[in-house]
Amino acid sequence: MIRICHTLWKSAIAPGPFVMLGATALAFLIALMLAAPWLAPHDPLVVQMADRLQPPSLTYPLGTDHMGRCVLSRLLLGMQSTLGVALLVMVTVALIGVPLGMLSGYIGGRLDSFLMRVLDGAGALPEFVVAIATAGFLGPSLGNLLVAIVWVKWIGYARTARGVVLSERKKEYIQAAQTAGSGTWTVLRRHLVRQVLSPVLVIGALDVGKIMLIISMMSYLGLGAQPPAPEWGAMLNEGRPYFQTEPQLMLYPGLAICLAAACFNLIGEGLRDRLDKRGGLR
Amino acid sequence: MLVLVRRRLLQLVIVLFGLSVITFVLMKLAPGDPVLSILRIDEVAVTQADEEAVREKLGFNKPFLLQYGEWLLRVLKLDLGSSYVNGTPVLTLLSSRLPLTLQLTAGAIVVMLALAIPLGLLAARYPGRWPDHLCRIFALLGASIPNFLLGLLLIYFLSYRLGWLPTMGTGGIRHMILPSVTLGFALAAVYSRLLRSGLLDSLAQPYIRAARARGIAGWRVVLLHALRPALLPMLAVFGMSLGSMLAGSVVVEMLYAWPGIGSLAVDAVFQRDYPVIQGYVLLTGAFVIIVNLVVDVCYGLLDPRISFGKGDLQ
């Protein structure tokens, strides 16, 4: 565990201005997300029809929506279902894909060719088509959407991890470790995890942004998080009828999605540039 | 080359078979009884006898595998069943709306090329200077802005406030502009970066230095010598961006009330019109898989360095 943290730190150290900017903004957003229950001035679900479509005021800093709910509170608490869920999904798919890919690349043989077939098959469909299929047949809900995303996304991690292990496996330090009597588990944990981590970190950072966009997109279409849940995309969807008179109802959550996705893209792109320069990837 | 095509064709068949199994099983798992949905179209009281008759007619009382076999045979004959909602054959629905989605996609590709090629060229010609920074900011924006937000902003300013362009529906070229820009913007961001890095790679090659030594300078080198190899990676990624194009087309079609297959699919999801959803998934899935095969083959034809011997395929 300490070793993993150390490697993570090393790949993140002196990360350049873009990564720092993204990481600082992201840290701020995550702090907001964690503190949201205390920061939010109102309950995001309480309907006050008397106060509907209010302009910004001291009671409602960003005004209210078509049901008189506080927009700021909904934005703050909506972070959990957009940003928080996207982070969680990324960690889940990485935890599924990376060990499978590493094991398959290291052991090779039948297991590997079987996994490759599975990857080819499961990865043939874009996540959006899978998401439409699950929403269509199993019903539109955030849970079904997440199943669809996990189903498609783990493949990228398995592929990357497998590729790194395949290229490292034949190197001398691994052979030395094997000769010294290290078993499969030890070699994977001690020597290969740290090689896999940096590229996985890059894909992970870029993926969180993509996952956020697809969650909010499906929710915007009405096929993800369902009202009255304060998810950002769903908020945009609910604001749609009031678009011409109250464009801010759609602008605030839209900008929030854009900002959060930009943080992850800054981090991901910056880390990738660094890896490219070191010759780590491609 | 032939080895690759044969192998990929075999893979295509396997994946399409898997796709058919998954959609069939999902359809069976779906909540609600399709027989009742069909009977409900007529809005008359449903009797037990009616129910049995429809069940018999659709073959729902046969064993599962037999049902799948019969369904697959029908699909192979391009009979995708009929919509639960209005009884129209799914194939008719899809084929009447597909041209509009293709038109939209073509528009988006034009927008993408018009934005990505100049930006990528400028960024690679002046790396580290303002065109490069502009390209970087554009790419960040394109990757981060959700397409529905971009579309809403465009509608709000260009058509609602300024009244320059129509908000929705189909029609002439003026109706195409906003949807195409909305769909093409994110793609342009990806491809401008891709072109830039491809150009920088090829500009670092010895043959470019040789060309420069022969006195060919500036833009001429970039356009005549470096551009061609830099376009190859763009082709390779094209297959992958089909997925995001499909997703984007659904949002854009909903946003601009563009009656393509994407809005058809979303409407079908809301109405629980399973045959239509199934048709959409089969059609787009098969389309993506086939385009990827074509892209791979073209890639092999265009880049003679890639030989598809037996060992290279992994």
Tell me what the structure shows:
The complex is a heterodimer of chains A (282) and B (314). By secondary structure, chain A is an all-alpha fold. Helix content of chain A is 75%, strand content 0%. Chain A has a domain of 187 residues: MetI-like fold, CATH 1.10.3720. Chain A is built from 10 helices and no strands. Chain A starts with a helix and ends with a helix. Chain B folds into 2 domains: 75 residues, no CATH class; 167 residues, MetI-like fold. Chain B is built from 12 helices and no strands. In chain B, α1 runs antiparallel to α12 and α5 runs antiparallel to α10. The longest helix of chain B has 38 residues. Chain B is flat and about 85 Å long. Chains A and B meet through α4, α5, α8 and α10 of A and α1, α6, α7, α10 and α11 of B.
CATH top level class name of the domain at 78-264 in chain A: Mainly Alpha
Supply Rg of chain B: 25 Å
Assign the CATH topology of the largest domain in chain B.
Answer: MetI-like fold
- The count of helical stretches of chain A stands at 10
The CATH architecture of the largest domain in chain B is Orthogonal Bundle
Mind telling me the CATH superfamily name of the largest domain in chain B?
MetI-like
Average pLDDT confidence of chain A is 81
Oligomer: heterodimer
The CATH C-level name of the largest domain in chain B is Mainly Alpha
Any idea of the CATH topology of the domain at 78-264 in chain A? MetI-like fold
CATH superfamily of the domain at 78-264 in chain A: MetI-like
Low-confidence stretches of chain B: 309-314
| Amino-to-carboxy terminus distance of chain B | 15 Å
